[in-house]
Amino acid sequence: MVPIDVPAFYQEWAIRSGGVVDAAAGEGPDTLDEVRIAYRKFFQDSFPAPDAMTFAAVDVGGVAAEWATPTAAVPGRHLIYLHGGAYLVGDPQGYRGLVGNLAKGLRARALVPDYRLAPEAVFPAAVDDAVTAYRWLLEQGAAPENVVFAGDSAGGAMAVSVLVAARDQGLALPAASIAISPWANLEHTGTTMRTLDGTDPSVGRAGLRRAAALVLGGAPRHSPLASPVFADTRGLPPVLIQIGGHEVMLSDAIRLATKLAEDAVPTRLDIAPEMGHVWHLLAGHLPAADKAIADAVAFAEEHLPAV
């Protein structure tokens, strides 16, 4: 495994994230498609898929997706992973490293929806596609008590909001959900949006505000399925929230945990001191990332049937 310079990675991620927002807004020298391809390659090169995994494309009720299957998967155990990228960028191929590490640890077959992205498809397109993928999985015979959701950043917010939408559509809910560095409040009112702005260069308040304007398509920033801190979360399964101590999203992650707890959802909040956005990506390079992956797997195991 090639060593990663962690500060340099976050600096490079910041540059690429800014390019994504510029391209999505119709600014900058590159097209949005070019930026998305480069973003995928950056993630693939930085975090390649682990060994003992296979990947295959699949259509899930009209939504493109990818299966990520570890050789030691427990039959019938599934992980639905919702990738990050501010709803503007990201795809299953670029997330094979992180998804592969989680799927291998959990010994679960992972389904990764390639949900529609903004600005071509604005809110709530991504949530709709994720619910469609979950509905499809249930229709294939997956038992909801054998399914765990997880996601990071925008996908971390959807790890809660998609369950709200699924509940409201009458679907049986999964065993548990893991929200990694969730972008949970598109109003960006948490204190750390100011006090920690610039501490982790990859995600800042100004960039998030620009991205949100592109994503929402005129919907209010407090729309519950876009900002789950405002959602009615009653009846959801247990949720683990993992957030870095250097993230601008820290206060809003705490607010999400509080909302879940007030709605009587079994909730666990893990704050990793001095960690930046989605530090789980650095598994194999950073002990705190290895611990976060192991903690997420252990949490899911607690709520799945014993094997």
Task: State the gist of this model.
By secondary structure, the chain is of the alpha/beta class. The chain has one domain: Rossmann fold (3-Layer(aba) Sandwich), CATH 3.40.50.1820. The protein has nine helices and eight strands.
Q: How are the elements arranged and paired?
A:
Layout: H1 6-24, H2 32-46, E1 53-60, E2 63-70, E3 78-82, H3 96-106, E4 109-113, H4 125-139, E5 147-152, H5 154-168, E6 176-180, H6 192-195, H7 205-216, E7 239-244, H8 250-262, E8 267-272, H9 287-303
Parallel strand pairs: 3-4, 3-5, 5-6, 6-7, 7-8
Antiparallel strand pairs: 1-2, 2-4
Cα distance, first to last residue? Answer: 32 Å
Q: What class do helices, strands and sheet pairing give?
A: alpha/beta
Overall pLDDT score: 97
- Widest β-sheet, arrangement of strands: 1-2-4-3-5-6-7-8
Helix segment tally: 9
